[in-house]
Amino acid sequence: MYNNKNTLFFKLKSKSIKEWNSYINHNFVKKLSDGSLSDKSFKDYLLQDYIFLQRFMKILSVAAFRSKTIDDMHRSIDFIIGIKHEIKLHINYCKRFNLSRNTVLRTKEKKANQNYTNYVMTVGLNKSLLELFIALSPCIIGYGEIGYNLSRKKNWKKSKYSSWIKMYASKEYQSLAKSNIRYLDQLNEREKIGFNTMLKVFKKASVLESEFWQMSL
């Protein structure tokens, strides 16, 4: 589904090869795959990801506000409810790596984290709903593609981070990614925004996601 040439998602990433490959094949991702990523780096990522999830809920609230149909609004609201549940799971997941709830809650946001969420929020407040979800696609869809790719590598289950790979390679997450690929197409049919405008957003978001990985190395 990630290479379906008929989708807007594929068209965007095929015109952003440098940015996209730098993101999904980042050294952080490679080290996750073979288990060579340091505990310190992974813990730092988990702590920053907790902050990101909170900001993600705010961004989705903007999406609900900007929605022009009841279905769009319900979609964003359902997404918020899902993230709320994921935040609880995230705290429990952090405990596997000896990160207490207090440690998670006391974490301060890093610049690279803030840069990405600020960018997406700005898009959400000032641009179209389509552009907002394009800005989110490296996160929502990209994690699905990364999880899928890593789960096809030999011996991935031997990585000490196999639980992370399993989470994003899961049937549930792959379904979420697929749904968002379809949603981009649906929004594109309605909003009719110029491709170059969309491409600019996609490239920028992909670069910022790559920098998100880099901040924990």
Structure, explained:
- The chain is mainly alpha-helical and 217 residues long.
- It has a single domain, classed as Heme oxygenase-like (Heme Oxygenase, Chain A), CATH 1.20.910.10.
- Helices cover 79% and strands 0% of the residues.
- The chain is built from 11 helices and no strands.
- It is globular, with a radius of gyration of 17 Å.
- The model has no long low-confidence stretch (mean pLDDT 96).
Report a brief summary of the structure.
With 217 residues, the protein is mostly helical.
Structural class: mainly alpha
Look at the structure and name the CATH superfamily: Heme oxygenase-like
Radius of gyration, in Å, reads 17 Å
- The coarse overall form would be globular
Q: Number of helix segments?
A: 11
* Average of per-residue pLDDT values: 96
Named CATH architecture: Up-down Bundle
Sheet-strand content, in percent, reads under 5%
Q: Tell me the number of strands.
A: 0
User: What is the CATH topology assignment?
Assistant: Heme Oxygenase, Chain A
Distance between the termini: 30 Å
The helix/strand order is: HHHHHHHHHHH
Low-pLDDT parts are none
Domains, number:
1
Please give the share of residues in helix. over 70%
What is the CATH class designation?
Mainly Alpha
Largest sheet: none
SSE diagram, text form:
Blueprint: H1 8-14, H2 17-24, H3 27-34, H4 39-66, H5 70-95, H6 101-106, H7 111-126, H8 129-151, H9 162-169, H10 171-191, H11 195-214
Helix pairs in contact: 2-11, 4-5, 4-7, 7-8, 7-11, 8-9, 8-10, 8-11
